[in-house]
Design goal:
Blueprint (H helix, E strand, L loop, with lengths): L9 H14 L9 H11 L5 H11 L9 H8 L2
Helix pairs in contact: 1-4
Length: 78
C-alpha cells in the first residue's frame, strides 16, 4: 500500500509521517495495539474495549496486528 496519493498534498503526507512517529512510541516503524490505545485515549477517552479493538482492526487492513504508516495515512485522510 502506497502512502502517496495524487489528491493528498506532500506537506500533508509529511505531517502524517510526523504524527505517526509521535504515536510509534518504540520507533519500530509500526503502531501496535498498546500505542493505538494511547492515541485513542487522547482523542476519545470514552473509547474502550471492544470498540477500540474493532477500530484497530479496521485500520489494520492487512491484519498483521500492527498499523503501518500506509495504513495510518489511509485512515487519517479518509
Amino acid at each position: 500500500m502506497s502512502i502517496h496519493r495524487s489528491n493528498v498534498p506532500p506537506e500533508r503526507i509529511e505531517d502524517l509521517r510526523e504524527e505517526f512517529a509521535a504515536v510509534d512510541g518504540d520507533q519500530d516503524g509500526s503502531i501496535d495495539y498498546a500505542e493505538f490505545s494511547v492515541l485513542m485515549d487522547s482523542l476519545d477517552p470514552n473509547m474502550k474495549g471492544t470498540v477500540l479493538r474493532i477500530g484497530f482492526g479496521e485500520i489494520d487492513t492487512d491484519h498483521d496486528g500492527r498499523i503501518s504508516l500506509a495504513e495510518f495515512v489511509a485512515w487519517r485522510i479518509q
